[in-house]
Amino acid sequence: MNRATQFRNHFSRYDEIPLKEIYDYFHEQENLNDDNIKVLLSRWTARNILFRVKKGIYKLADKGYVPFRLSSDKLQKQMAELFCEQYPELKYSVWNTGALNRLTTHQHFNSFYVFETDADILESVFYMFKEWNLDVFMLYDGDILQRYMYNVENPIVIKRLVSRSPLVRNDGVLHPALEKVLVDICSDRTLFDFVQGTELGNIYANALRSYVVNITKLLSYADRRKIRPEIESIIMPFVTKSKI
Question: At what angle do helices 19-29 and 3-10 cross, to 10 degrees?
C-alpha cells in the first residue's frame, strides 16, 4: 500500500482535514520533519490528491470535489498571445462565460469572452484587438453592451483586472480562479445579468457541492470588490459559520 493510499484510508472519514492533524500524522507515521511535510503537501496539491479549501484546512480529492478548470480555446490563446507579446510583464485574465453552464440550472447559449487587465492600458488593448478584427467592447457602456454585443459571433468584453485577483494558468493561458468567477458574477450585475436571482444561488450551490472552493480566497477577493457581506450571506446555507 503506497503512501497516498495509506493517507486516504487514515482520513477517509474526514470531510475536512486540519493541517495540524496532517502534520501529526506524518510526524507519528513516518517521522517526517516539517520541511518534508510541506514539500509533500505541495506535491499532493499539485497532483490533486489534496485540495486546500481555506487556511489550514484540506479536503481529500476522492470526497467528490474536483478543481474547476477553464479551458483555453483558439480565441483565448490568440488574445493571450497578442497581449503577452505587447505587455510581457503585465497580468491579464481571459475566459468564456459558457463555462458557467456547468454550474447553472438553465443553459445559456449567448456566451461571450471576458478579458481583464490593468486599467491604464484598457484602451490600448481595446484598439490592439480591434486591429486584429476581434469584436471587442468596453465594459463602461452598459447600453452598448446590451444592444450590440450579442449581434456578433464572438463578443469580447474588456474590463479592469482587480488587483490581487485569484488567477490560474491552464495550457499557457491565465484564467480567473473559480473564486474570482463567483465573486465577479455577483459584483458585475449588469455584465452578468443572465445569472442573477435564483440562478445565482444555483451557481453557488453547485460550485460548493461539486468543486474545490477556497473559502478564504473567495472572501478575501470579495473584500477587494467590497461585497463580502453579500457573498457571506449567499454561501451561509452551504458553509457553516465557523468555516467562514
Answer: 130
pLDDT at 94: 98
Domains of the chain, residue spans: 3-63, 74-237
Q: Please answer whether residues 14 and 22 qualify as being in contact, where contact means their C-beta atoms are separated by less than 8 angstroms.
A: no
CATH of 3-63, one of 1.20.120, 1.10.10, 3.40.50, 1.10.12: 1.10.10
Measuring CA to CA, how many Å separate 168 from each of 41, 86, 100, 181, 210?
19, 21, 17, 12, 19
Residue 85 and residue 186 in contact, taking contact as beta carbons nearer than 8 Å:
no
pLDDT greater than 50 at residue 120: yes
Kindly tell me if the per-residue pLDDT of 18 is higher than 60: yes
Specify whether the CB–CB gap between 73 and 96 falls below 8 A: yes
Statement: residue 58 has pLDDT above 80: yes
**CA torsion through residues 152, 119, 54, 7, sign:** positive
Inter-residue contact 154 to 75 (CB < 8 Å): yes
pLDDT (average), residues 212-233: 93
pTM here is 0.78
Q: How crowded is residue 130: how many other Cβ atoms within 10 Å of its Cβ?
A: 11
